[in-house]
Predict the 3D structure of the following.
Amino acid sequence: AEAAGDTVRLIAGLGNTAGILKRRLEFDKSLIYSRKALSLAEAIGHQSYIGLLTNNIANIYFDHQKYDSALVLYEQALAIKREAGSKLSLAITLANVGGIHVAEKRFEIGQRYLDESYSIAAAQNYPYGLALSLRFMAFSAISQERYNQAIGYANEGLLHLGQRGAVQYARDFHLNLSEAFENLNQTDSALAHLKTARIINDSLFQSEKEAQIQQLEISYQVREKDNKNQLLETRQALTAQQLKSRTYIGLGLLVALFFA
């Protein structure tokens, strides 16, 4: 029993180390530690950790856009979590699977997974799960040019950000809102949400997004100035092509990573 306890502690330590490395964007090292932890969990038959670690390895593949590999592992994790009745963890994995289908433009399939994730998270009063599923729903709506729907998802998502860990999605929701309003030709609102996203981004120390956000902010500022000048001259000067033009930033799908 003591040896098994030591193994569980080792699994937890390896898993936590993998999580730290992932947050540092050291994905290859994170994968090594995650696989070591998974191997130990399988050796002692610890189903909870097997499901969790399988999910986390899938997250790494997801980040590298290796969607086929990620999907296989997510489905394995889903089977384990459904059998174990792990509702909160199940909601997260369902959202991740939905996110992959959205990324691959299988929107209807993705929505089914996201709806199930949302329902479980709502029933469990789980803000983190609600925020994650709504984040992918908003991204899906943006990808399908359903901008008003995206605004609804993003605004609802912002209501669920009180729980620690879910705050990271605030930036993404504000970026969703910025792009949606920009495409609806509401430049003032687009720029306001972009600036909010910039502030949140700085507070989260996510330097890998900094250059993209700066580039998008400059684009909106230039467009704002041009729009005001043209509005002073004549509203009719705006052509249909200019109204539809936009600068799009590839956000990448964030996936949840957590350890018990």
Summary: The mean pLDDT is 79. The longest helix spans residues 210-233. The two ends are 20 Å apart (CA to CA). The chain has twelve helices and no strands.
